[in-house]
Amino acid sequence: MHPINWIIVVGYIAYVMWDGIRRSKGTTEIEGYFLANKSLPWWAVGLSVMATQLSAVTMIGTTGQGATDGIRFIQFYFGLPLAMVILGVTLVPFLHKSKVFTAYEYLERRFDAKTRSLTSFLFLLSRGMSCGTILAAPGVVFSAVFGWDLLWTVALIGIPTVIYTMIGGVQAVTWADVKQMVLIVFALLAVVVVLLYKMPVGADDALRIAGSTGRLKTFDFSFNINETYTFWSGVIGGTFLMLSYFGTDQSQVQRYLTARSVDEAKSSLLMSAYWKIPLQALVLLVGVLVFVFYLFQAPPLLHNPAHEAQVRAAQETQYSALESRFQEAFTSREAAARAVADARDNGDMAAEAQAMETFRAREADVLEIRDDALALAEDVTGESSRDVNYIIPGFVLRELPLGLVGLFIAAVMAAAMSSIAAELNSLSTATVIDFYRRWFRPEATDAHYLKVSKLATAFWGIFACVVATYAATLGSLIEVVNRFGSFFYGSILGVFLLAMIPRARGIGAFIGLLSGMGVVAAVTFGAPDVSFLWHNVIGAVTVLIVGVALSFLRPSRRNE
């Protein structure tokens, strides 16, 4: 990569660290460190909420998913607006007025200490693993693309993030998120402009060709619990997931607890309700346009450069034969794609339909050869190819102009840093408030708790780095991070829903939570074909059924 691009990347990291440290003023007390003294404006909180969710996994994994699978992934977010409205009239005003640091503090007031601790522990476990996956996204890609050791790439992003999060607290995290959201959106729009400029066909022809391969198919109304990206999975399973994520996950709850008022907290969530789906559509559109671009510009047979090098070294003859077949298939597909565009420009509908059929056949040939190459790569390396995670970085490095490459790499790092910082801050908060202060040192000075908080941030940073090295071996990272969360989210949501039932008691909440986790685990390993989105529904419903049954069967006792 050109030195100018590296200057942009390094300069951005240095700026974020400097600004985060500068904003440490006013964090000498734990309310300032964890909640910014509830002084942040709604728009900053809203951008922070969106930035926490829009991670490097989104920049790399979701764009790659758009290139290979189209925009149907957008159905995953169909439950988001409904979830935000529900939270705006239920949990958000209640938690904001409760003067709590964590969502789980409320569970002790409503139920008992063991329910609070178990729920907080599950949050720490799930969010710690997800944080590692988010860190793995840029780490694994930069490792393969630049030939660096994975540990160095993880450290490049992890260490600066831990430093400014430790020093600046939630103030540093939030204002860094604001700048990072601006950079991310600008980088995505810049990539779209470059793609449209470089493609030999117009935008309408590009979208029509993409649509012929099913990549613009948005809605799937089939009701199949084994399929993740359908309308019903998104609306039902997605609503449960978003209710749990935004309503009970400390990494999100802590964002709106920093808002100046209940109304501003609601407004911050409504920003996500209005803008998350369009922003996600933009991310997926980048992937779709990259797919169209590679119809006219020969892509690599394998997008993972590290795997490509290993396969070439181990099976050069077989891989060269695949490359020859791939080049022939690509040439035929390119001619068919141009024929579609020419027929459309000439207004010849019959010729366009015939050209479209030819194009689909040539596309199937290309996909068949790609599948053979991916299978060969897995045989040689013994690892999942994870090819989807390398499509966009490879395109950026090969095709974007000088300066814009550095800007996009900085945006990927910004996306990773914003999500990791928010999660490290929330992990530290739950560790100190729900465990250290609750069970070990209930009476101590703010200075002491701040010191422990910074140590906890460092601990979770190290934990995330360790998880990142494991998560790097998994498949599409955007799916990995959501699978991690869905294993826990539904059951945690069930406990908060149970808290809204007046006669529900602690014994029901605690046993119900354990039962929910047990049933989700049984479904995960016993029926792996069931989509992870439905794990959220299964967990929440199980907790409610068991919790209500135990609460009503046992006689009422205080603190049960």
Kindly describe this structure.
By secondary structure, the chain is an all-alpha fold. The chain has two domains: 3-294 and 396-553, Sodium/glucose cotransporter (Up-down Bundle); 306-385. Helix content is 79%, strand content 0%. The chain contains 22 helices and no strands. The chain has helices at residues 3-22, 30-35, 42-53, 56-69, 80-89, 91-97, 103-110, 113-146, 150-198, 203-212, 231-248, 250-257, 262-296, 305-314, 316-345, 349-381, 391-399, 404-440, 446-471, 477-499, 506-526, 533-553. Helix 4 (56-69) crosses helix 13. It is globular. The protein starts with a helix and ends in a 7-residue tail after the last helix.
Quote the average pLDDT: 84
Topology as a string of helices (H) and strands (E): HHHHHHHHHHHHHHHHHHHHHH
Structural class: mainly alpha
User: How much of the sequence is in beta strands?
Assistant: under 5%
What overall form do the CA principal axes indicate?
A: globular
| Percent range of helical residues | over 70%
Task: Indicate the multimeric state.
Answer: single chain
Whole-number radius of gyration? 24 Å
- What characterizes the major β-sheet? none
N-end to C-end Cα span: 61 Å
> What is the total tally of β strands?
0
How many structural domains in the coordinates? 2
Q: Which stretches of 5+ consecutive residues score pLDDT under 50?
A: none
Q: Name the CATH superfamily classification of the largest domain.
A: Sodium/glucose cotransporter
Q: Report the top-level CATH class of the largest domain.
A: Mainly Alpha
Count up the helices. 22
CATH architecture of the largest domain: Up-down Bundle
CATH fold type of the largest domain: Sodium/glucose cotransporter
